Give the backbone structure.
Amino acid sequence: MQSRTSAPVLAAGAVLAPIGLVLSIILFGGGSQAAADVCSPDRPGVSVDANQLPKVAVAGYEGEQLKNAALVINAGKALGLSARGQTIGVMTAMGESGLRVLDHGDGPGPDSRGLFQQRDNGAWGTYQDRMNPSASATNFFKALQNISGWEQLEPTTAAHRVQRNADPFHYQTYWPAAVEVVAALGDVTITDAGGTSSCGIPGESGKGDDLPWRTSQIYAASPLGMFNRECVDFALWRVNQQLGSTTAPYRALNGTFRPDGALLGSALTWKAR
């Protein structure tokens, strides 16, 4: 995507797919088409009556699973977390145990137990704590709160920094279901991606071609350090908008976006990097 062309790349349909892929991975935790108020970092935490749960499945989860989700949600509320934080907790428990209190581990962690598959290493309390949904969720959320800027991270990244899963993207496929469960149990309205709610960080996603340096020389470096008007230049502009950075100095630059300072490169390499 960094190759040169004779016309503005944004006009070519071939580059719109990489833009959507990049933005869905970075901004929306895996590309969920559903968005909900629970995703906003500013949305206060919700409370759930664990005795008044839906009798039907929500996003494929039911019965004891929904009760465990309610206990996770309430544990986050007790610590003053936002609804987004509560949703990250539910997403993580989905990815670790399917919202079940498991009394067994797996190959990488044979001593893992409970909703969050917490290890027997002294960091997660006693066996009884790890097997208790409320206690294990509380310990997960306390660890989450110790991560600087966690509410601005992609949900799967925030969860990974607590859980240290071998695959940092392991949890992203569970984000849409977690949004649906928290919204349903917390009585929060879900809207589609064009509604007023957002599962990303508020910005201008979907507005169209609004690059502020659109009249710059086509092959010169943009203010973000990408080739001007390449698809990755546009995508990085969208990332800055989502972070509330719409004027120089921009927060996300090619060369500063990655923690190691390496360049982002083409759209094909963004997820891995």
